[in-house]
Amino acid sequence: MPDVGEGLTEAEILKWYVKPGDTVTDGQVVCEVETAKAAVELPIPFDGVVHEIRFPEGETVDVGTAIISVDTTPGAPDEAPATAAVPASAAPAEAAPEPPAEPAKRQAVLVGYGVSEASTVRRARRTPGGVPDRPKGRPASEVNGHGASTAGGFDAPAGDRPLAKPPVRKLAKDLGIDLSAVVPSGRDGTITREDVHAAVALAPSAPAMDVAPAAAAAPEAAVEPGARETRTPIKGVRKATAQAMVTSAFTAPHVTEFVTFDITRTMKLVQELKLDPAFAGRKVSPLLLVAKALLVAIRRNPEVNATWDEAGQEIVRKEYVNLGIAAATPRGLIVPNIKDAHAKTLPELATALGELVATAREGKTSPAQMQGGTVTITNVGVFGVDTGTPILNPGESAILAFGAVKDMPWVHKGKVKVRKVTTLALSFDHRVVDGELGSKVLADVAALLEQPKRLLTWA
Questions:
Q1: How many alpha carbons lie under 13 Å from residue 267 in its C-beta half-sphere?
Q2: How far is CA 89 from the centre of its chain?
Q3: Are 356 and 283 in contact (CB under 8 A)?
Q4: Which residue, 160, 158, 200, is CA-closest to 182?
Q5: First to last CA, the chain
Q6: pLDDT value of position 112
Q7: Nearest partner of 188 among 136, 144, 223, 141, judged by Cα
Q8: Which residues does the annotation mark as catalytic?
Q9: CA gap 285, 271 in Å, rounded
Q10: Listed range (5-9, 46-50, 289-293, 305-309) with the worst mean pLDDT
């Protein structure tokens, strides 16, 4: 498992494109993995035949662990043929010297040097009682710490505690199952929930005296704990997002300001731009003009495009804008960014925004596309939400939330009329952005969208 995202320590295998026996060539994509940042396709770096898939889909693997082995010399014998036995009476007086043993061959793996075919069993780890645990794939008779044969099952020495996770122990306790009598099927002899349920299925054949009186007299069948719950493992993008949000919320002092205004003229401009030949084949939406308005506001107030350097005790102002767009995907919330968005024309910005959103929805956003952002927009209006208090993307000092556009009564030219109205929310790091600067930025964005011709006069 290579490090595909600058220091990431693990990745989840999403899909295998090959199976044992398949022929692969150098550069062929063999699997797709999900890191804390993105889904990435992994190529194989050599030619050969797939010998073994070491981890199934859905399993999280540490960086540096071999996940696939490939036979780079298919057709070659794995070992020399055995020599035929010779009767003792026919043996020569002096035996011929044995040829030197060949070094054990290694299988090619995706990362690292692989493992020797002559020794593929890991060292037995020790249990809390100091007795070697059974390595995966080894018969129990080989690993009994006291030298006694335990062939035919994994019988831990007296005093050893069966291996099981806390939820499995609780399930066994609730169902009246003795874990020491359960046959484990999990990795390294770990008892799984399925093992406990299998033991429950055998419970009726047990003597009646082993059944607790309370359980025997229960008028209704016991409900398995968690039967009406759904548990989703926290990993990949969701895990990274949760950690980032906690870090951001508790390290950067957030301040959020709101403004509600008439966006009718901008909505009319969106419809006009859709018919403009310069935007043919490009997606034009209100978000495009919100992005352009924010870029103009940053040019007028460049101090907002900065970050707090705790180690250097400095405020670092960026002379470029990598505009992040928060995107909700099946894998979770991601924030890819448009590099050098400040230098793009409106049609170029429309193209970049459309490609960014399409790539995110397909789950093909690369780690590089989510690094180096300087300011972010989150469009909560697409969910019908008026506004919210957005949390800063770590490393940035401002994030703008664009709320739903609704028909509302509004005073326009001295009369109450139905107008298109929306609300913007700007959260900022109060260490970098004070109230005056934050208010100026938010007011500028609202003014530009209320009178979109200012996008020309203020640019």
A1: 12
A2: 69
A3: no
A4: 200
A5: 48
A6: 40
A7: 136
A8: 430
A9: 9
A10: 5-9
